[in-house]
């Protein structure tokens, strides 16, 4: 979603954390979601910063999320 809102300025980083230390580590994830029926599109200020071109398509958040889950977790 941030990629769409930022018109491609920010992208999700692929990552995996491996703890090779004998010390105990804690990770706290924070997720923020719009309503399922929210239309997500590039913010105008981000479009202007990229020269006026819309680099990403609009998406309905719920449809986007369902497609992500299907692509990542359904064989």
TrEMBL record:
Pfam families registered for this protein in UniProt: 2OG-FeII_Oxy
Coiled-coil positions: none
Superkingdom as given in the UniProt entry: Eukaryota
Domain Isopenicillin N synthase-like Fe(2+) 2OG dioxygenase: start-end pairs: 2-34
Protein name (Swiss-Prot/TrEMBL): Isopenicillin N synthase-like Fe(2+) 2OG dioxygenase domain-containing protein
Protein's organism: Gossypium trilobum
